[in-house]
Amino acid sequence: MAIIAVSGRKGGVGKSTVAGNLAGEFAAKGRSVLVLDADPQHSMAAWAAEGQGLLSRVVEKVAPTGDLRARARAAAKETDVVLIDTPPGDPEIAYQAALAADLVLLPCGPSPLDLFALKEALSLALKARAERRSKKPRVRFVPSRVVMSTNLGRTLASSLEQMGKKVLPPICLRVVVAEAVAQGLTVAEYAPGSPAHEEFRALAKAVEKILER
Question: How far apart are CA 138 and CA 20, in angstroms?
Answer without folding.
Answer: 20
